[in-house]
Amino acid sequence: MKKTGKAALVAIAILASACGTDSASREEPTDAQTAPIDTETPTGTPVAQGGSLVVTLDSDPGSLNPAITTSGAVHAASETFFNGLVALDENGDPEPELAESWQVSDDGRTYTFALRDDVVWHDGEPFTAQDVVFSFEEVLLEFHARTKASMGSSIESIEAPDDHTVVFQFADPYAPLLQQLNVTEAPIVPEHVYAGSDIESNPANLAPVGTGPFVFASYEEGAEIRATVNRDYFKDGPSVDELVMRIIPDQATQVLALENGEVDFLWGVPGPDLSWLRDNPDIELAATSSNPGGANCIMTVSFNLDRPIPGTLEVRRAVAHALDRQRFVDQVLFGQGQVAEAPISSGIPWAHADEVELPAYDPGEAERLLEEAGWVEGDDGVRTKDGEQLAIGFAHFPTFAKYGELVREQLGAVGIRVNLEAMEPPVFAPTVFAEDNFDTNIISYCNGPDPEVGVRRMYDSAQIGDVPFTNASHYSNPDVDRLFDEASRTVDREARSPIYAELQRIVVDDLPYVWIVETVGTRAWNTRCSGFKPHTGLFAEEVSCEA
Question: CA-CA distance, 158 to 171, in Å (whole number)?
Fold first, then answer.
């Protein structure tokens, strides 16, 4: 029996975000111990041994298409239906998936992929190179924030010379491509299902057709999603018959359900429950910096630079000095993470600039800056200037409520009134990115395995728009844009490091964001099941469960 801490995997190369709702719900016992069934598949793989795997989701995802968003809620619920051209192992290194092999030209501009010829979509149609071309040209480069922000300005063409070959051609050398082709960054969707339709409203977004190890069966809004094992999966697949994803917003209820054997797998464990779950011989734990929504995530406060108060540098610096980031680690994460020390995650060590200095916790300096900017503390403790209160809104997912409460307490101590605005994910994204209707917010920006994958979208002025989880602050600095371009064209990693270091010094001076904490996710599962891959959205690709 494995114990909690022992099993800790610290993954590689991280959230969008775990999203949830306020309301708690108690689920009925599951049918996880159904009788085993031995079934030969049409292709000889896999052989299902039977039973159900029951996992929890924090919230209703609202969509099951991971190609049109980087929302953690969507990806947690849907990645298992799809595949990428490559997979990333626990060290972040690419492995064959839909692509059997690849070649990179000497000048770093051309990537040629040889695709598997034994892959079929869940509806029986053959998977071809044209599906890859369509996925990138019509979906990923239009709607997936990270893929759009990174590859969008660099790709010259994507062609399918035959059914099983895809060629990516870049205008300049492009280093990070292989790191952004897994199911999280670039899930491949079927052309024959989406072509000619409104991608965002296609019915398949709620009844997905993929190539992954599980086949969509049903979706009961706010309750559960069911899938059956893919008998035609091109790899050795799961040894269960069914995957049941139950929507249980309250984390304490999730833990109780796990302990009672009502569910088998949790995506995250609340900090207060970690120590005693470690002592439960029927539970195994694994910590990872990778999540379905992305890897190497930093909880980040965004300022709306288009509004007068958060658009003032002195106010932003005051906010940064007023926040004791260690308290977020201790009181929100319960040690599951660390204080962010730079704009780029320490999970990308060669790009992380440990020499930059983020504004340190110094409430006295925060008060001095506000006084200097003309904000005078009133009798009620709230500062005012020209008759206007120093009050800001703070938008957040309900699951991030504890961040909001701590922000309100700490900013309140220096005279800034914070109005918390909890929004469900389907409301948050359009409010922040399409309507630009916020003062500040908190987002789990996942940096990915390479800055080009998950960092650029936050700062590149070309990423100001309505695509969710891109440049929320509407930050624009020509020098930063130039440095991102230069870094993406630089193939040698050692040569890219100083470019990202300079870029981080600039954004720390401009402070469009405050980087709070780097997060780590802790998976938990019942030891009756094994074979999990907790660092990937295809977490149950090889799972089997005792009856």
Answer: 12
Distance CA 256, CA 253 (A): 5
For the residues of 348-364, what is the DSSP string, one character each?
A: STTT--TT--PPP--HH
202: amino acid identity, one letter: N
What are all long-range contacts of 375-378, with beta carbons under 8 Å and residues at least 24 apart?
375/315, 375/415, 377/415
Question: Around Cβ 26, how many Cβ atoms within 10 Å?
Answer: 10
Output Rg (C-alpha) for the chain, integer angstroms. 23
- End-to-end Cα distance, the chain: 17
- Write out pLDDT tens, residues 28-62: 222 222 222 233 333 434 444 689 999 999 889 99
In one-letter notation, the amino acid at residue 415 is G
Helix, strand, coil percentages, rounded to 5, for the chain: 30, 25, 50
Phi, psi of 166 (to 5 degrees): -130, 135
Residue 467: φ, ψ to 5°: -75, 125
Per-residue pLDDT tens for 176-212? 899 889 999 999 999 999 999 999 999 999 999 999 9
Runs of H (alpha helix) within 15-91: 72-78
Looking at the chain, the number of H-run helices and the number of E-run strands are 16, 26
